[in-house]
Design brief:
By secondary structure, the protein is mostly helical. About 75% of the residues lie in helices and about 0% in strands.
Length: about 240
């Protein structure tokens, strides 16, 4: 009976990637062409809701201030007063909602775009570092756009750093929960060094095992029904 050829250790499709291999799995299990419009749309509607609330309140206060010197004196006058006030509140809320929704959607879209660009510049590595860089970049751009003073810009940068770090670690936690390898986690746990040691040991013991398998083909077929927990049966049964 001919001995089966030895399987290569590196041909296992389920093997974990090495320490230096970039991970191609997309963030949040969504490719970039889906993640960007979804994030922009969600942020737009969130900003629109906030702007609608803030704009309607501001328009109501402005209407009261502008008409404080000519308050109505009759029930009909109060009815028209509140009717006009509600109209101004609705119109102001819609305008502010679209403005704030557009601003938030653009900034969030820019954040995800910078994050993806940094991932690709790093060779496909996706971890919290790219998210932190994107958060700091958006904080700097927001400060320059609004011409903040140095103290306010520093406070904004700290907020961007903390938000980017928190969001990046959340993404990394979700990636680990889905079984994706992270380079810095392997480095901290020493997983890659242990795998390299095991691969060296397998490379040293595999030729001897192949020699035994080639010389004892008939004995191997006879030992195959034996309990694999026994020493010879386990060795020859794994050929």
């Amino acid at each position: 009976m001919e001995a089966r050829p030895a399987e290569s250790i590196t041909d296992d499709p389920n093997a974990s990637p090495p320490f230096s291999a970039p991970t191609s799995a997309p963030r949040l299990s969504l490719p970039f062409y889906l993640r960007l419009p979804i994030a922009s749309s969600v942020s737009f509607f969130t900003g629109m809701a906030l702007g609608l609330s803030h704009g309607s309140q501001t328009a109501g206060l402005r209407f009261r201030a502008e008409n404080a010197h000519r308050l109505p004196q009759t029930p009909t006058g109060w009815y028209l007063y509140h009717k006009s006030k509600n109209y101004h509140m609705m119109l102001g809320g819609v305008k502010e909602g679209f403005k704030m929704g557009g601003r938030v959607g653009i900034w969030v879209g820019a954040f995800f775009t910078v994050e993806e660009a940094v991932d690709r510049l790093r060779g496909g590595r996706r971890d919290f570092f790219s998210t932190v860089v994107a958060g700091l970049g958006m904080a700097g751009g927001f400060s320059l756009w609004n011409r903040f003073p140095v103290i306010t810009a520093a406070r904004t940068a700290r907020t961007g750093l903390l938000c980017g770090l928190a969001f990046g670690l959340i993404q990394d936690a979700l990636a680990l929960a889905r079984g994706r390898r992270l380079a810095y986690v392997d480095f901290l746990l020493g997983t890659n060094r242990l795998e390299r040691k095991l691969d060296r040991e397998k490379a040293l013991t595999r030729p001897a095992l192949d020699k035994i398998c080639s010389e004892t083909g008939e004995v191997r077929s006879a030992l195959r029904p034996v309990d694999m927990r026994n020493g010879p049966g386990e060795i020859l049964g794994s050929c």
